[in-house]
Amino acid sequence: VGPWKRGMNKVAQQNAGVFQLPKPDALFPQEGIPQLTEAVNVDIDDDGRITRRAGTSRFVSGSSGLSGFSTPDYLLYQDGTSLYKVNTSTGATTLLTSSLTGTKLEYHWLAGQTFMTDGTLTARIDASGNYTNWGCSSAPTPALAAVGGGSLRAGRYMVACTFIDGEGIEHSCNKAGVIEISANQNITVNLSSVDSNAVSVKIYVTETNGSDLYYTKTAAVGALPATITNTSYSHEQLRNMNFYPPIPCDGLFDYNGMIMLFADNYIFPSFGANHHLFEVTTNVEARPTNIKGGAGLRGGWWSVTERGAYWTTGDVPENWNTEQRDNRKYAK
Predict the structure, then answer these.
(1) Nearest-angstrom CA–CA distance, 160 and 143
(2) What is the pLDDT of residues 91-105, one digit of tens each?
(3) Is 90 helix (H, G, I), strand (E, B) or coil?
(4) C-beta of residue 246 within 8 angstroms of C-beta of residue 135
């Protein structure tokens, strides 16, 4: 990389080994590419040349090295279909998984977790350092049946379910099922399929002839079908409807607490800090051509395509405003 703009180190603010430049939306007029915004463990001289600071190197053996990644807590490297974690304090190496596809992983570290994708799978390393799922599939529309000997009032009921994974994270549902019952009946709830990462199912039910879904009970995956005998357990309303789990993508970055996935010419932001939920049909940014990279910075985020670079401002998707910031030479 580099050399960068002459005199760059005079405007950079050095803090704990990191150069932070004051204008993240600036472009070099000649190259038409985003200005350097961060440089870790390197020095930049007055002519823009970069030199690496003194450090240590670690060599590992493997037959098909594809990718590597560094976090504040550990190092990762991919050897073919296997992913390894290196403890930076002890040097100990741990095999995390040997079930990758053999395609280069893209990584991103946020909030103590590492999120990964290779265009086919998505996964993450949680805050405890364990390789695990990144999201569950949306729970299907439940199959409902009326059974006698119950206590529910006659009328129409809607029922929806969400999956809970082993970390207690609640995921999304597709849509609610609907049933009409007679007086003094109960409702049985079953699912046609269950995500392999789910350990329990959270069930939401409307009041009689109502439209708002409220939490009613939780059932272990192995305890389905579950029976609804009462609809007045709580005032916790269902919020996680019509979201999607993270999609396998070409790359990822973060902006304003959101994980941003990009695939082909589309960018999909997570539902705020709920990094396992995505609105892939509504909150979607599109570019004219395929996206090659992106970066979230102070005050906005970059997306770079085959034909140009774009700068987007605004805190949330509803307020985003995008401008093309490249020059004619780069666009050609």
Answers:
(1) 10
(2) 899 999 999 999 999
(3) coil
(4) yes
- Kindly state the tokens that stand for 262: 């990009």
Question: What is residue 159's predicted lDDT score, i.e. its pLDDT?
Answer: 97
pLDDT one-digit tens code per residue, 116-166: 999 999 999 998 889 999 989 999 999 999 999 898 999 999 999 999 999
Residue of 69 and 6 predicted with greater confidence? 69
The dihedral through the CA atoms of 226, 229, 233, 234 has a sign that is positive
39: confidence class by pLDDT, cuts 50, 70, 90: low
The angle at the Cα of 229, spanning 224 to 230, to the nearest 5 degrees, equals 120
Contacts of 299 (CB under 8 A, 6+ apart): 24, 25, 313
Strand order in the sheet with 309-313: 291-297, 300-305, 309-313, 321-324
The residue written with tokens 């996964």 in the block is: 123
Calpha distance 323→299 (Å, rounded): 14
The mean pLDDT of the chain is: 85
pLDDT in tens, 199-243: 999 999 999 999 999 999 999 999 999 999 988 667 899 988 889
Q: Which residue has the higher pLDDT, 225 or 327?
A: 225
Residues 6+ apart with CB under 8 A from 89: none
Count the Cβ atoms, other than its own, within 10 Å of residue 165: 19
Per-residue CA distances from 318 to 220, 278, 280, 313, 331 (Å): 37, 14, 14, 11, 28
Tokens of 82: 């296997």
Residue 23: closest CA among 293, 313, 257, 297: 297
Alpha carbon of residue 204 to chain centroid: 25
Give me the helices (H) in 85-204, please.
none
Is residue 19 within a helix (H) or strand (E), and if so which, with residue range? Answer: strand 18-20
What six digits make up the tokens of 39? 């440089």
Contact 264, 250 (CB under 8 A): yes
Q: Residue 170: which of 276, 280, 271 has the closest Cα?
A: 276
Under DSSP, is residue 4 helix (H, G, I), strand (E, B) or coil? coil
